[in-house]
Amino acid sequence: MFEDLKKTIDKGLDIAFMNAEKVAQAAKDLAKENKLTKEEAKKLYDYLVKKSEEARKSVETEVQALVKTALKKMEVATQADLKKLDARVKKLEAKGKAPVRRKAAPKATPAPKPRVK
Q1: Does the residue 106 lie in any domain?
Q2: Which domain, by its residues, includes 17?
Q3: How does pLDDT run across 9-59, given as a tens digit for each residue?
Q4: Distances in Å between the alpha carbon of 22 and those of 9, 25, 29, 82, 98?
Q5: DSSP readout, the chain?
Q6: pLDDT of residue 97
Q7: CA torsion angle 25 31 32 35 (round to 10)
Q8: pLDDT by residue (tens digit) across 18-30?
Q9: How many domains, the chain?
């Protein structure tokens, strides 16, 4: 019984990430295995397509949230941050004030190589 439950769960997860063609084939297989009528098979197909789309959207939303959190932790500038800075620079330029340009830090000179005798 436990093995049947595992197979059912695995099949459900597989179906969640299938394309439409594979969902149709899975619905046909399940309908055949369970001796469903054509109407029942159609309902099953529609249900599988709906659940597949819901699972795909859920995973996409979750991945986007994880990426957003990771980027925030790494303090990567967002498009909104860049747009704010661009607007600020344009505003300063319009006032006649050039943006502050800092001198580049002097390059470190490499340490002399030890002489080989």
Answers
A1: no
A2: 2-94
A3: 666 666 666 677 777 777 778 777 778 788 887 887 788 788 878 887 887
A4: 17, 5, 10, 43, 60
A5: -HHHHHHHHHHHHHHHT--HHHHHHHHHHHHHHTT--HHHHHHHHHHHHHHHHHHHHHHHHHHHHHHHHHHHHTTPPPHHHHHHHHHHHHHHHHTTPPPP-PPPPPPPPPPPPPPP-
A6: 62
A7: -170
A8: 677 777 777 778 7
A9: 1
Amino acid at 74: M
Q: Any residues with CB less than 8 A from the CB of 55 and at least 6 apart, and which? A: 16, 17
Classify residue 59: in a domain, yes or no.
yes
Tokens of 104: 């580049």
pTM for the model stands at: 0.47
The answer to whether residue 102 sits within a structural domain is no
End-to-end Cα distance, the chain: 79
Handedness of CA 79, 64, 61, 55 (dihedral sign): positive
- Both structure tokens of 51: 């659940």
